[in-house]
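FIELD: query
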Amino acid sequence: MDSIDVKHFYPHGYRFLEKRVEALAVKRKNPEQYLLRMPKRLRDRIQAHADRNERSLNSEILRALELAFPEPVSLSSRISEVGILLSALRKVRGFESAIDAVSQEIADVMRDAAEGQDPTLDDEAIAELKTAILKWDGRRDVELAKHKRLLDEKYRSEESDK
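FIELD: result
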């Protein structure tokens, strides 16, 4: 087989080819870099927006992506926040029964999911959900015990006033 003249295929010479291969290898070694092709008009609009906000083009693109794809909030955090909100709402007069009904419905849905009735949840999510339910139930038990103590004290003091 005849040898191939690299200069015939690469008029800039073999060194040019070596540099190109090295550049590609460097890019592949850093998975955090991504070559993105976009229409010039889109790039110009993004660059103009970046300039107005005193950001680089890269920062503007990353910001837009972060806004479009926010970091997911963990299930246990969301459940904890719902529990806190419901606890705060329970203190609003006249809404107790509605809030209790909503909280019971949420608890039922969470328990069903924790028992594996939600096929979209993996084992880790189910474990996290079970932990959150235990914490929520624990807070509810504490609240109920506190409420019971307050009622006991109230009705003891009313009986002693007679």
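FIELD: remark
Residues 62 and 68 are 10 Å apart (CA to CA).
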